[in-house]
Design brief:
By secondary structure, the chain is an all-alpha fold. It has one domain (35-120, 128-183, 193-230). 58% of the residues lie in helices and 0% in strands. It contains eight helices and no strands. Helix 1 (38-61) packs antiparallel against helix 5. The protein is globular, with a radius of gyration of 27 Å. The two termini are 44 Å apart. The model is unreliable at 239-252 (pLDDT under 50).
C-alpha cells in the first residue's frame, strides 16, 4: 500500500543570489559563413615566391653549404613556407595558422633586417647584379612584406607573452650551430665565421658570448614589443567576423 500523494508540494528553499548563465561564446564560423580572402592569399603567395626567389639566387651564385648556413637565408625559407601555407588557408577560407608560428616567422625576419642594417657594416665593395638584388630582398623587402601582412591582413591580439621565450630557441640553436660550424673548418679559412660579432679568432670567446647575450636580450625585448604592439594596434582586417552569440542573464 502506497502513501497518498500530497496535493501541495512544499516550497523549495530559495537559491541565494541572482541566477546567472555563464557567457557562452559561439565561434564566428557558426554564425557567419567563412569567405575566401583572395587578395590576402595573393599577397602572401607573392611574398613567399619573392623570398624563395632570393634564396634561389643566393644558392646559384654562392656556395650552397655556406648560403644555407646564413640566418637571413634560413629565416626567409621559414617565411616562404609560412606565407605559402597561410596563402592556401586564406584562399580556401580555412582557419589561419597558429599565431605562435606566424609570430616566430615575423620575429626572425625582423631580426634579419635589424642585424643587417644596424649591426653589420659593409666590408669591401658592395654587391652588384643579381647578388645585390637578392641581398636587398632578403634583408629589406621580405621583412617589410611580413610586417605589412601582420599589420594589415592579420587580426590583432593573437600573440601571447608566453610565446616570447620559446621563440628564442631558434636563435640560441643558431648560435651553437654557428660556433660548431666554425670549429669544424680549418683555422684561418675564408668565411669561417658567418658574422663578425661571432668571430672568436678576432674577439675571443668571452667577447663573443657577451655579444650573444646582449643580442639574445635584444631579441627577447623585440619579441615582447611585438606582443605589446599586437594588443594595441587597430584591427584592419575587413573580413573578420564581428559578432557571435553571447547568452545574457535572464530578464526579470
Amino acid at each position: 500500500m502506497t502513501a497518498p500523494i500530497p496535493r501541495d508540494i512544499p516550497d523549495l528553499p530559495a537559491i541565494p543570489g541572482i541566477p546567472r548563465l555563464m557567457p557562452s561564446h559561439v565561434p564566428a564560423t557558426a554564425v557567419v559563413a567563412p569567405s575566401r580572402r583572395r587578395l590576402t592569399a595573393a599577397f602572401r603567395l607573392l611574398t613567399a615566391l619573392t623570398a624563395a626567389g632570393a634564396v634561389t639566387i643566393e644558392l646559384v651564385l654562392g656556395s650552397p653549404a655556406r648560403v644555407l648556413s646564413l640566418f637571413a637565408v634560413q629565416s626567409n625559407i621559414l617565411l616562404a613556407a609560412v606565407m605559402l601555407l597561410a596563402a592556401r588557408r586564406a584562399w580556401t577560407a580555412r582557419r589561419p595558422l597558429t599565431p605562435a608560428l606566424t609570430g616566430a616567422a615575423l620575429l626572425y625576419v625582423a631580426i634579419t633586417a635589424l642585424v643587417h642594417h644596424v649591426l653589420l657594416t659593409p666590408a669591401g665593395p658592395p654587391p652588384t647584379g643579381w647578388h645585390a638584388v637578392s641581398e636587398q630582398v632578403l634583408h629589406t623587402v621580405t621583412p617589410i612584406a611580413a610586417a605589412l601582412d601582420w599589420l594589415l591582413l592579420t587580426a590583432p591580439g593573437a600573440l601571447r607573452l608566453r610565446q616570447a621565450a620559446p621563440w628564442l630557441a631558434y636563435p640560441l640553436a643558431y648560435l651553437a650551430f654557428s660556433l660548431a660550424r666554425a670549429e669544424l673548418l680549418p683555422a684561418g679559412a675564408s668565411g669561417r665565421y658567418l658574422y663578425p660579432f661571432l668571430d672568436v679568432d678576432l674577439h675571443g670567446y668571452k667577447s663573443v658570448l657577451g655579444n650573444a647575450l646582449l643580442l639574445g636580450l635584444s631579441i627577447y625585448a623585440l619579441a615582447v614589443l611585438l606582443v605589446a604592439l599586437d594588443h594595441t594596434r587597430p584591427n584592419l582586417v575587413r573580413h573578420r567576423a564581428k559578432t557571435g552569440f553571447r547568452l545574457q542573464p535572464p530578464v526579470g
